[in-house]
Each structure stands twice: as C-alpha cells, then as structure tokens.
Amino acid sequence: MKTFGILLLSLALLGFNLPAGAAELQQVSRSAGKLKLDQDTDLVQALQMSEPVIKANPDLPQNYTASAAQQNLDGIANRHDQLFEIYDADVALISDIDGDGYHHAINVYFDVDVSHDNATVYAKLYLSREGEPWSQYYTTDLFTIHGDDYADAYEVETELLEGYAPGYYDVLVEIYSLDHAYMVASEVLNYYYLGMDVMIEDRSWDEPYEEYYYEEYHSHGGGSMATLLLFFLIIQVVIAARGALALSPCNKSEKYNKKRLP
Asked: pTM above the 0.90 mark?
C-alpha cells in the first residue's frame, strides 16, 4: 500500500494525467472585483490581499445572506416582469512576463442592464480551455444595477496561480438576480465576441526569459612554449636563408676568382 502511494505521488510529480476531478482540484487562482467606477477600491491592492482559492464557491456569492436565499426558495420575490441583458463585456490580458503571448492575469469587464427598475445581482465567472468543460473560478459580491446605466458596470481582476495550462480560453459570465430563482443572463467571451484570442496560462508557466551568455576563456599558460617555438622557427629561416645565399652563382664566381689570384 505504501509503495502504491509513493507511485501515485511520483506520477503526479512527473505530470502524468490525473482523472478530471483531481485535475480540477488543482486549479488555484485569486480574484478581486468592484464596480468599474468605484474610486474607493484599489483593484490591484484588493487582488494582492485576496487569499488564493481552489475555484470559487459554486453556489453562493460572498455576501449572499440566508434571508435572501430563503426568499428565493419560497418564491416570494421571484419577479417575471424584468428582462436582463449583458449589454457590453470585454477581457483585458495582463502580465506576460516571458513574452510568449500567454498572460497569467486577466480583467473581465461586463455591464448588465435590466429592462426597468433596479435589481440586485451577482455574477459567476468560468473558464474553458479549448472546448474543455467550464470551470468556475470566481463569484462576485452582490451589486445593484439601474436600468441601462453604464455606471453600474462591474470588473473582476484575476491572477491564475496553478492548474491552467497554456492555451486559448473562453470566458463565461453568468448573471443571477436576488429577485429570480434562476440565471437571468449570460455571455461567452471568446474570439467571436471579442475579436481576439484569450491566451492565458497560470503563473507557474509564465517564467521570465533568461538569456545565457557564454564567455570563452583562453589560457595563457603555454605562452613560453609558443615563444620558444617561434624562436626556433626564426633560426630555421635564418639558416635556410644563409644556405640559399651560399649556393647562389654570385658567391661561386667570387670564390673562383679568389682562387685564380696569384
């Protein structure tokens, strides 16, 4: 049994494929959201203070109260005279450290409109990698929308920490209202909606690119030997040159003339 456990651990460390349920449990991210025009909340600072989570709570928003849940269960506030629409949405890619085109953080923006009156809503956000099943990564706080007012637009910034392999992702935004017992609006943000690919990866993949410089070191320990060889080469050249002069016709005639002198 102990050997089997060690084998499973080794397979996990080596990156072998795990069952879908186990793989989903490894998806870790952290998110922070706010109304787009909220000047009192620093989204970057809020994100840094957020605790990493293994997927968001799939059932309830962060401040969803028990009384509101009971109202939905009882059907007391289940209105049918309001229509909802995600009027506009966008995705901004953030933080590509290694410059490979895949980012490990995204900002999702959406503006929800209601046909009349006001409504208290919350949103669930999902990611899907290249056609894989949707995986929820965040549930927003409750916020109020006012007709078609653009000032109630919402944004969520997310840093992907683990379990998101590089790829082309789709983003799904689902809107829920406290006055309705079901989802009231949704939108898939992909290439066809955005006009661009959502290329993301988690932080573990987004490592800074490092260039390695190789320097050649030349040892000068053999300098004396090279000098000695050069010295002997010069001597050989001098000897060869003197031999050539000794065999020249001019030198022979001078020696012959010297012998004929009385």
From this structure: no
